[in-house]
Predict the 3D structure of the following.
Amino acid sequence: GAVVSQHPSWVICKSGTSVKIECRSLDFQATTMFWYRQFPKQSLMLMATSNEGSKATYEQGVEKDKFLINHASLTLSTLTVTSAHPEDSSFYICSARVPGRGGYGYTFGSGTRLTVV
Amino acid sequence: QKEVEQNSGPLSVPEGAIASLNCTYSDRGSQSFFWYRQYSGKSPELIMFIYSNGDKEDGRFTAQLNKASQYVSLLIRDSQPSDSATYLCAVIMGGYSTLTFGKGTMLLVSP
């Protein structure tokens, strides 16, 4: 149980276009979703925290107008990379906190490899 | 700046040996500590978490926490080639609900 489904698993897009990444909680209600970015040989860096029905909280240095996060329902959060550029190429991972599971409660999506050409 | 530090490695051990992975954290108010394993191109998977000082064992894995020294470690006994991966230490720091990750230590277990 407590699965987060993330799509697509990989995407290649042209510079200047936008890409949407979806994360769905399949068997629980995710009131909070976390979005991470990971560059090669680097750690997961938290980009933003989204709460259902409210605006996302972005970490310092993350452009909220470039990385649009929507968490309109308890089972779906989306990250849209707008006007993507090659430097946005990275591995994007979502994570949700599963209620009542304590330390087992942070579950991750399978990740999206974005390549901007 | 609240940080989680790990040696990037690689840490190379022969099959059957004990692998010891270390992590230090800067926030003395941190309460929860996690070890994740990440294979290349995949998302992290939870190995263990620990809240209290001391040791916590689960199968071949033992997590050790020393809050006074702000140090957490992971021991892997009887290391297997399939354990070769990057091991990420993550901490929930005081007053936060988000995970802060270290850069990870690459472990290579040779047959």
Summary: Chain A touches chain B at residues 6, 32, 34, 41-46, 49, 91, 93, 95, 97, 102-104, 106, 108-111, 113 (CB under 8 Å). DSSP finds no helices and eleven strands in chain A. The longest strand of chain A covers residues 90-97. The CA atoms of residues 95 and 116 of chain A lie 23 Å apart.
